Amino acid sequence: MAGYRKLGKTSDQRKALLRNQVTGLLYNGKIRTTEARAKEVRKQAEHLIALAVREKDNFDTVTVQAKVARKDAEGKRIKEVVDGKKVTVFDVKDKTIKVDKPSRLHARRQMLKVLYPVTSVPAEGKGRKAGTKTVDLTEKLFDEIAPKYVNRNGGYTRIIKIGPRKGDAAMEVIIELV
Predict the structure, then answer these.
(1) Is 177's pLDDT higher than 70?
(2) Residue 47 in 3-state DSSP?
(3) Most buried residue among 29, 60, 71, 113 by CB atoms closer than 10 A?
(4) Whole-prediction pTM value?
């Protein structure tokens, strides 16, 4: 007996499909798919959430000095003329950053093996590159999702059957984070 469902696809297609659906589930909170796919997505998603729960507090905070460009009221960088060249003016500020401990770094890299990069587009700027942001799903897992499930031993997802699909009568379900 195989340890996974083949879903009628070649291995690279199946892995890409599952990575895409796991990424969608963790980014949106729920997705609509077939029952067999949802059961495979559940395995991967619960593994990633368990990693995040285990390593969520495993970091050090460090204060560093960073050079930050000085900006005017419009948000543009302020430039000065020095030796006949325009040079950006920088201020030195103290910043507090999180530094992962080795086990959390390993967990982050394991998550990145599964998750695709996500770019969020603001609703008013559809179709434009301006205003788009890359979403760090590993940070979302550690900071938003993991704290919800600290006192829970597994069972982070729920599958709700919604009936057969019209075209091929495949059982459709909604898989969501509990």
Answers:
(1) yes
(2) helix
(3) 71
(4) 0.84
Q: Are 171 and 35 in contact (CB under 8 A)?
A: yes
- What tokens does 68 get? 């930050």
Q: Where are the alpha helices (DSSP H) in 115-176?
A: 137-140, 146-148
Which contacts (CB < 8 Å, 24+ apart) does range 57-61 have? 58/100, 58/101, 58/103, 58/104, 59/98, 59/99, 59/100, 59/101, 59/104, 60/98, 60/99, 60/101, 61/96, 61/97, 61/98, 61/99
Q: Is the pLDDT of residue 165 over 70?
A: yes
Percent of the chain with pLDDT over 70: 97
- Cα angle 92-135-125, degrees, rounded to a multiple of 5: 95
Per-residue pLDDT for 127 more than 90? Answer: no
DSSP β-bridge partners for residue 94:
65
CATH 3.90.1030.10 is the classification of domain 11-57+101-177: yes
At 103 the three-state DSSP class reads helix
Dig out the tokens for 34 from the structure: 């077939």
